[in-house]
Amino acid sequence: MKREEEEEEDDTVCLDESFFINDNYQLTTFTFGSQILQLLCLQSASTDFDLTGQLVWPGATLLNDYLSKNAEMLQGCSIIELGSGVGVTGILCGRFCRKVLLTDHNEEVLKILKKNIELHASSENSNCCAGLIAEKLEWGNSDQLNQILQRHPGGFDLILGADICFQQSSIPLLFDSVKQLLSIRGKGQSKFILAYVSRAKVMDAMVISEAILHELQINEVVGTRSVVGNLEGVIFEITPQ
Q: InterPro entries from the xrefs (predicted)?
């Protein structure tokens, strides 16, 4: 009996965490209005839920289409993007803004994000007018956010987020960070633009309720509700009450 237990123990396979990481990135071309971007990304989702930032989701397409049609709102702005993933939105904004800070909480995602920033910066046709910076930020982590705000004490004109509401537990933390960022400038001086894609009714209601609980005003941008990737998406503007 003891020998059988030993044999069972010998059969146990311990997998390194790298086994679950898919880094088969492909250079992919994206077109938003007159803007053409080439970025490294996955073509399908990783097996690890925490690595959703390795590919471009429908919400990012929705937000980039909206921003490319309203590029005047970006001119000369400073921007922080929450949940940047591979950087498709932040890098697009870099063509119009004076400063863009791209953030993500996952170290593996930050690696590909930084590679894409380097790729864009070295491109002969980058048309870049903003410094693109990538930093780690976990929503609800006041220490990390305070460190960012120490380096950017004036705050940001715009806060951007696209397709970042996947888990119910993350939504209150998202709005904790959004409220802190919006409070730096005060009412009317900054806003959060969220490209939201509906995947569950409970999530739809939670996004609205959390904004209200955080004393934020949330408004649907007229004309932005559309179907993206067989799902319904919409742009919200969120400001202090």
A: Methyltransf_16 (IPR019410), METTL22 (IPR038899), SAM-dependent_MTases_sf (IPR029063)
Complete domains list, the chain, with CATH: 17-240 (3.40.50.150)
- Note the pTM of the prediction, 2 decimals: 0.86
- pLDDT number for residue 45: 57
pLDDT at 121 over 70: yes
Q: What pLDDT score does 192 carry?
A: 98
Q: Which amino acid is at 137?
A: L
Instruction: Write 21-26 long-range contacts (CB < 8 A, 24+).
Output: 21/46, 21/48, 21/51, 21/108, 22/46, 22/47, 22/51, 22/54, 23/108, 23/112, 25/54, 25/112
| d(C-alpha 121, C-alpha 15), whole Å | 37
**One-letter amino acid identity for 12?**
T
Strand locations in 42-168 (E) = 78-82, 99-104, 131-136, 158-162
Report residue 75: phi and psi, to 5°. Answer: -55, 120
